[in-house]
Amino acid sequence: MKRAAFSSPWMPVLLLLPQVSIIFVFFYWPAFEALESSFYLQDPFGFTGTFVGFENYLTLFQNSEYLRISIFTLVFTVSVTFFSLAFGLLFAVKADKVIRGASTYKTLLMWVYAVAPPVAGILGVSLFYQGHGLITQLFGFFGHEFVIGVNYYDTGFALIAVSIWKQVPINFIFFLSGLQSVPRSIREAAMIDNRSSSGRFWTITFPLLAPTAFFLLITNITYAMFDTFGVIDVMLRSEPGNNPMTLTYKVYVDGFRGGDLGGSSAQSVILMLLVLALTIFQFRLIERRIHYT
Amino acid sequence: MSLRKLLAAGLAATMFSTTAFAETNITWWHAMGGQLGETVNKIATDFNASQDEYKITPVFKGTYEEALTAGIASFRAGEHPNILQVFDAGAATVIGAKGATVPVEDLLNENGVKFDINDYIAGVRYFYADANGKMIGMPFNSSTPIMYFNEEALAKAGVSAPKTWEEFAETTAPALKEAGYIPLAQSHLPWIFTENFFSRHNLEFATNNNGYDEGVTEIKVNTPEIKAHFTALKEWKDAGLFEWYGTGWGDNQNPFEEEKVAIWLGSSGSFGGLKEKVGFKFSATLLPYWEGVTKEPKQTFIGGAALFAMAGKSAEENKATAEFFQYLTSPEVQYMWHKETGYVPVTEAAYELAKEDGYYKESPAAEVGIQQLQLPAGEWTKGYRMGFYVQIRDVMNREYGRILTGETSVEDAFATIEKESNALLARFAKTQG
């Protein structure tokens, strides 16, 4: 076998340079800046400032409110991830069985994906509108006075519901294509061995979907933690008040609205570490159990 | 036409235009959307048409917070506008950053524009000034919280607008409830029931001369008067005499427009919008006060925003900015702004012009804001200056929401507000050192 090699050792470096410089300029540099400013308390205009070491971090850990927001973020992320994956899978399995008008169903289930997060937020605002919203009235029918923006739990429910709704289509698309790539011969062989369709699903189809599910798990957690910003901002109307919010939204509230660059940098460094830990955990512990074909 | 000819023509055109219109261009970043933005554009267009030396371009930058953030980011990048609109809660940030702005008083004096702080109406003079009374930011859209009421609702209940909170609790509210209304709502708890509570009752709001002096300021919010007020609010809410629809401004204004709520506390700047939207007869009057706290209620603070001349601009551009400020504060422009938007005119001369023109005869409610700002001043009514105040307001909103939904007690809430606000103020002091 002939070994391909570059005549000059600088050639590969040169070819890598565009990619590396993009990563450096758009990722490492800002990340480093955030790390640096998390150790300072700075006037937002950049005239004066004090080096405060880990004070910005300590302030966060001593603040009971930060803990409360962290807990909400956990609940939010777990429920959005779980339910949007579950609904996506359920719809995919059902749509996979449909023969007549299949493409109509699929299109109807997918179109939500094209809705931009702030638009989804506006739809959420009108559905959960105080007193008049359709879902508000539905809750009223069952005897619960649903008041978004006033009741902490009602607002939390609305945020989670809209975020799930927004994410179901993409999971649906991925699961559907995953299902369609399960070989027909395996399904037919399984039919002979097991009469129960749910039994067949959990023992044969689901493990074969695992690579898709694993990929979606990571993207959904990332979505729930970071990409729900648009939904949250619109639904809270940029006024958090006594409503729940996620850690990502808190970075915006303190840094952008409040001008506390040091504090919000410390928060984003924590988020960076969190994502790093999550990724390592997922690849180390979960991926070993998944078999790619 | 060949490329060369085209280039030559283009070059000639540019040279011609620069020689023919040697005007100085300045930019103005603001946060006035919708109808307010149109009025801002009208002011700019009129200014540009009124002379041919200067040209101002207004740029809408989103909400108040977004405009301030954009201004800060652009300043750090050296591409900031000449004029930046900064709202009341952001005043400490921009005034604290010495070197970011040119004090408006200096700017006007250096450019030969006559400036006398006493030309401005009493309530707006010192809000954007430093500890020595030098005006730093030019008050622009100035409003103050006032009490709007549905006249039909009050007539039906057989009551008049309450002057004091005692009168509201004993007479007005029960009668309105009897008549089938929710008696009271308001749109901004930190602004109306905190900051302006302190000014209306002439109470100290923060140490260091309400925060104007240098040093680490401490908020004095954990005090009996305001705690009594919030205890009363919670009682009224439980008794159906007051309703709170969340932290959003509009959520609390809508029920008043829908004639469910009889009395609504909002901004004097809300007048223009209300007049266009509602079908019923409404009027406005001064913000009530607690007779038990003071027998001599004072003026309130202004809310809204001011225009700051940003530093690092050429002398010609600063001259243009000064000229624009002179134009902006002229009685005619102020009167137009007042009439179109409902914000108060910032100068005495403009107020006089509005009175002479008979504007308040046709719509008396439009005068309430300015009347309230003209009330006697007290020791603690000139304003407040606290850093990270946007977050302090966030903390207040959060805790007030919890009081009103019964998640916490008044005592605990105010202890939390005091603790978290003072921590924020101490942190802010470090950003200045």
Give a structural overview:
- Chain A: InterPro entries: MetI-like, MetI-like_sf, UgpAE/MalFG_permease.
- Chain A: Keywords: Cell inner membrane, Cell membrane, Membrane, Transmembrane, Transmembrane helix, Transport.
- Chain A: Belongs to the binding-protein-dependent transport system permease family.
- The complex is a heterodimer of chains A (293) and B (433).
- Chain A is mainly alpha-helical and 293 residues long.
- Chain A has one domain (52-289): MetI-like (MetI-like fold), CATH 1.10.3720.10.
- Chain A has helices spanning 10-37, 55-62, 64-97, 102-110, 117-127, 134-141, 152-180, 184-193, 197-227, 229-235, 247-257, 261-286; strands at 40-42, 49-51.
- A two-stranded antiparallel sheet of chain A has the order 1-2.
- In chain A, β1 and β2 form a beta hairpin.
- In chain A, α3 runs parallel beside α7 and α5 (117-127) runs parallel beside α10 (229-235).
- The longest helix of chain A has 34 residues, at 64-97.
- Chain A is globular and about 75 Å long.
- The model of chain A has no long low-confidence stretch (mean pLDDT 89).
- By secondary structure, chain B is α/β, with parallel strands linked by helices.
- Chain B has two domains: 21-143 and 302-367, D-Maltodextrin-Binding Protein, domain 2; 145-300 and 387-431, Periplasmic binding protein-like II (D-Maltodextrin-Binding Protein, domain 2).
- Helix content of chain B is 49%, strand content 13%.
- Chain B is built from 19 helices and ten strands.
- Chain B has helices at residues 3-20, 34-50, 64-76, 91-96, 104-110, 151-157, 165-178, 189-200, 207-210, 224-238, 249-257, 271-277, 315-328, 331-341, 348-356, 359-362, 368-373, 389-404, 410-431, and strands spanning 24-30, 54-60, 83-87, 101-102, 138-143, 145-150, 182-186, 261-267, 282-285, 303-310.
- In chain B, strands 1, 2, 3, 4, 5 and 10 form a six-stranded mixed β-sheet that branches. In chain B, strands 7-8-6-9 form a four-stranded mixed β-sheet.
- In chain B, α2 (34-50) links the parallel β1 (24-30) and β2 (54-60).
- In chain B, α2 (34-50) packs antiparallel against α14, α6 packs across α7 (165-178) and α18 packs antiparallel against α19 (410-431).
- Chain B is globular, with a radius of gyration of 23 Å.
- Chains A and B meet through α11 of A and α3, α4, α11, α18 and α19 of B.
